[in-house]
Amino acid sequence: MFTADDKSLRQSWLDAALSRFAADNEASMRETRTLLESIVQDRALHARLINTMSMLEHMGSHKVMATCHSATIDQATLQHVAEEAHHAFFMKRQAEKCAGREMTYVAQDLLAPASARMYFQRLEALVVRLLAKGRGSRAAYLYMSMIVEFRALWFYGLYEQCLKRAGYAMSLKRLIGEERHHLNDMAQRLELAGDLDDARARRLLDAERRLYRRFLGALKRATA
Ligand SMILES: [Fe+2]
Ligand SMILES: [Fe+2]
């Protein structure tokens, strides 16, 4: 268990890391906001964007499953899988509502799908490479999830603001609450295992930022 001091230490690390993330992504924030604003105005594009988020959530839940299939899988990890799978379902339902038809994960129902998949795969390869020395899949799972949650929280926050401004009836409150909980949980579990390392997290977040920039570029081209 954490003492009050440990908890506040972790919280202050997370707070600092979150503000650094926001500062490092300022240019991307403006570009992402502009892009989201134009997509939300176009029903067909918007449905494809939501379906793409559904696919990413689905990939996320699948990756958690794939890295944590051992007999020692714990309650927190099972909850994580269940929540990411629910996010995929939620987004799929919203995408189909927006499109007024069924949507699948095929190219014409998605936005920049190759780049979306590449974002995940390259990030995962990087995490595995960096953590390969002496650590099992557990640390890789925790780091991968933590890094992705930084982006998820940031992106969904922007998207929610954009939906509100456009008067679009879709609330991300529960989803954002769960992503925030995942981020805290991953940081806590890494810290408990003695694996929470600021330099390593920075390195991974820097790499993630470059991968996100590429994905953002592909999204812009797909909607131009
Ligand atoms: Fe999620
Ligand atoms: Fe999550």
Report on the structure:
This protein starts with a helix and ends with a helix. It is 81% helix and 0% strand. It has helices at 4-24, 26-40, 43-67, 75-99, 113-131, 137-166, 173-192, 198-223. Helix 6 runs antiparallel to helix 7. With 224 residues, the protein is an all-alpha fold. The chain has a single domain (4-223), classed as Up-down Bundle (Ferritin), CATH 1.20.1260. Bound molecules: fe (ii) ion (2 copies). One fe (ii) ion binds at residues 57, 60, 84, 87, 152, 179.
What structural keywords apply?
binds fe (ii) ion; 224 residues; Ferritin; mainly alpha
**How large, in whole angstroms, is the Cα Rg?**
17 Å
CATH class value? Mainly Alpha
What structural class should be given to the helix and strand makeup?
Answer: mainly alpha
Query: In percent, how helical is the residue content?
Result: over 70%
CATH topology name, in short, is Ferritin
**Can you tell me the residue ranges where pLDDT is under 50 for at least 5 consecutive residues?**
none
Number of strands: 0
The name of the CATH architecture is: Up-down Bundle
- Beta-strand fraction estimate: under 5%
Number of domains in the coordinates?
A: 1
Specify the overall morphology. globular
**SSE string, helices as H and strands as E:** HHHHHHHH
Q: Termini distance?
A: 51 Å
User: How many helices?
Assistant: 8
Q: What value does the average pLDDT take? A: 92
Q: Give every kind of bound small molecule, once each.
A: fe (ii) ion
